[in-house]
Automatic annotation (TrEMBL):
This protein's GO CC annotations: plasma membrane
GO BP terms: transmembrane transport
Protein name, entry field: Sugar ABC transporter permease
Organism annotation: Microbispora cellulosiformans
Entry's family note: Belongs to the binding-protein-dependent transport system permease family.
Keyword Cytoplasm applies: no
Region annotation Disordered: where it falls in the sequence: 1-37
PANTHER family according to UniProt: ABC TRANSPORTER PERMEASE PROTEIN (PTHR30193), DIACETYLCHITOBIOSE UPTAKE SYSTEM PERMEASE PROTEIN NGCF (PTHR30193:SF41)
Localization, UniProt: Cell membrane
Membrane among keywords: yes
Length: 323
C-alpha cells in the first residue's frame, strides 16, 4: 500500500528486533550482572571485617596512641607538661624496672621448658603410652581455675611449713623457702603459671597431631625406634609449625597474664625479685599515682610484645618453608 511504512522482517540480521540485537542486549545485561557480582564479591570480605577493624581502631589503636603520647608528659607538679624522654630515662634508672626486664629474659630462658611439658603430654596421649587416659582426663582442669584460686592453693602448699616441705623433710631434704627466697621465688611462680595454663597449649598440640602422617610413626615403630627417637626424629619435625606457634603464644601469655599469680603469691617480692613489666605498670598507676610513668612502661612492654610478634611471624614462615 502506498504511504505505508516498510515492513521489518523478524529474523533479519542487523535489523531492529533481530536476533543479533537481542543477543547483544543479553550480553550487555549478562556483562553488567557479572560486573556487579564480581564487585560484590570483592567488597564482601571488607564488609565482613569492617566491624572488627572499627573495634580494634576504637578500643585498641586509639588508646595505644593516646598512651604513647601520654608517656611524654609529666606526673605530679608537671602533670600535662611535655617532658620528652624523662619518663623513659627514669625507667632506665629504676632498679625495679630493670629487675622486671631481667625477669623477662628469665622467662625467655624458661620458655622451652614451658612448651616441652604440654608437648610431651600431648605426645603421650597421642601415642597412647601407659597412663595416657589419666592425662586425657585431667590435663585441662587447671585451665578453668581462676589465677586467684590457683595462687591461694599454692600459697598453702608452698608455705615454709606447708605440705610440700613436710614431704621433702621426710626424705631428708631440708625445707625450701619457695616464696621467700629471691633466688627461688620467680622460678616457683613461673612453675605455677605453667601448671595453670599448659592445658591450652596441649589442646593446640593435639590439634597439630591430627595433621601428623601416621605412616611415619608406623615406620618408626617397625624400625624399632625408641620413644625418645620417635619424638626427636618424627614428631618434632612434623609439628614444627605447631611448636613455633605455641612457643610465641606461650611467651605472650607469660608477659601478659601472670599478674594475678604475682599479686596473690608474692606481691612483687621478696625484694622486688618477681616484678614483671605488667606488675610494675600496675604499681605505678594504681599505688604510686604516676600514670605518665606507667604509660612509658606500657609503651616499653608494647615494644617487647611487638618484637615477640615479629619473631612469631619469622618462626612460622621458617617452619612453613621447612615443610
Amino acid at each position: 500500500m502506498k504511504g505505508s511504512s516498510p515492513l521489518v522482517r523478524p529474523g533479519v540480521p542487523g535489523r531492529a528486533g533481530g536476533p543479533d540485537t537481542t543477543r547483544q542486549a543479553g550480553h550487555r545485561a549478562t556483562g553488567t550482572g557479572s560486573r556487579r557480582a564480581a564487585r560484590s564479591e570483592r567488597l564482601a570480605p571488607y564488609v565482613l571485617v569492617a566491624p572488627a577493624v572499627l573495634i580494634i581502631l576504637g578500643l585498641r589503636l586509639y588508646p595505644l596512641i593516646l598512651g604513647v603520647n601520654f608517656s611524654f608528659t609529666g606526673d605530679g607538679d608537671r602533670n600535662g607538661m611535655v617532658v620528652g624522654l624523662d619518663n623513659y630515662l627514669e625507667l632506665a634508672d629504676d632498679p625495679l624496672f630493670r629487675t622486671a626486664l631481667g625477669n623477662v629474659g628469665l622467662l625467655v630462658l624458661l620458655l622451652p621448658v614451658a612448651v616441652a611439658i604440654p608437648g610431651l603430654l600431648a605426645t603421650f596421649i597421642y601415642l597412647r603410652v601407659p597412663g595416657h587416659r589419666v592425662f586425657r582426663s585431667v590435663y585441662f582442669f587447671p585451665a578453668v581455675l581462676s589465677p586467684v584460686i590457683v595462687g591461694s592453693i599454692f600459697n598453702l602448699m608452698l608455705a615454709f611449713d606447708g605440705p610440700l616441705n613436710t614431704v621433702l623433710g621426710t626424705i631428708g631434704i631440708g625445707p625450701v623457702d619457695w616464696l621467700g627466697d629471691p633466688g627461688v621465688t620467680m622460678f616457683t611462680v613461673v612453675g605455677v603459671h605453667v601448671w595453670a595454663t599448659f592445658g591450652m597449649a596441649l589442646v593446640v598440640f593435639l590439634a597439630g597431631f591430627s595433621t601428623l602422617d601416621s605412616s611415619l610413626l608406623d615406620a618408626a615403630q617397625m624400625d624399632g625406634a625408641s620413644l625418645a627417637r620417635t619424638i626427636w626424629h618424627v614428631v618434632i619435625p612434623s609439628l614444627s609449625r605447631t611448636i613455633a606457634f605455641v612457643l610465641v603464644t606461650t611467651m605472650i601469655g607469660m608477659l601478659t597474664s601472670m599478674f594475678g599469680l604475682l599479686y596473690v603469691m608474692t606481691s612483687g617480692g621478696p625484694e622486688g625479685s618477681t616484678y614483671l613489666p605488667e606488675y610494675y605498670i600496675w604499681i605505678q598507676q594504681g599505688q604510686m599515682n604516676r600514670p605518665a610513668l606507667a604509660s612509658a612502661a606500657s609503651t616499653v612492654l608494647f615494644l617487647i610484645m611487638l618484637v615477640v610478634g615479629l619473631a612469631q611471624v619469622g618462626l612460622l614462615r621458617r617452619a612453613g618453608r621447612q615443610d
